[in-house]
Predict the 3D structure of the following.
Amino acid sequence: MSATLTAPETDSVKARILQGIDEFTMIPATAMEAMQVGRNPACSLKEYGRIIERDHRLMAEILGMANSWLNSTGAPVTTVVDAVNRLGLNKCQELILATCTAGLMKKLPFRDTRIRQQLWRHGYLTAVVCMQLNQKMRLGFKGEEFTAGLMHDLGRCLIAATEPELFVQAVTEIGTDSSRTLQVERAILGTDHCEIGREFAMRNELPEQLVAAIEHHHAPLEATEHSTIATTVAMAAEISARLDRDQPPIDPDGEGVPPSPLYEDMARLRDIVSDMTRDFTEKVYSEANKLVS
């Protein structure tokens, strides 16, 4: 039987969620300083690396990401300065946001650790699929697509951590029909994960295109000038969900699939997704588990 979609006092639920997210800071001071310095194209890469090295946890996470199978281009790097020199400034800026996301996932007080794992693995797989789509469809992103995919469901993570019972109620009602996600969440919570994610992203001064992807990945064409990254994330999230359920990964006419101009070249898209086997998915999940263990 479906859950009742008339949960009382949804305004107060929304207020509790918004109040709860005030307790969490996504970007530590050192990471914020590095990102601010990194916005200057003329900044010294050595100086940039030295700032990161002041925070041992951030340093370890950056090195872990730099040496992951996604980013490694040769022998392992052992210092942040080496990582910056190898990967470049843009990539390192995105790695900082990725490591901060992983750090936030570790800190969020999930009552059920299985939910933490499920949300993190979905976000990480979506990020990797975004990267694959960018590379093989030549979309022109420079790492921001990975970060957007990783962070697109931040709102769901925050809701799960602050209102776990209502989160489970919403997930149960939605089932596999993602077209009803926002409708169900609004009825039960008085808000939805896109709104909560946008609010958190803006409070943490995330880049505008990331905010747009977080807010509009269920209606990507509403992202206007950022619609390309939003549609890429929307497509990747749908592919990721289907891979996790061992379903056929491409069904542009299926329920819950947001309209996207990227679906116009279906032959090419199917060819890309054909490489995303179960072994591919398990490899991504193994990498994801290392980052939040």
Observations:
- Residues 1-24+111-293 form a domain with the Hypothetical protein af1432 fold (CATH 1.10.3210.10).
- Residues 136 and 272 are 7 Å apart (CA to CA).
- The radius of gyration is 19 Å.
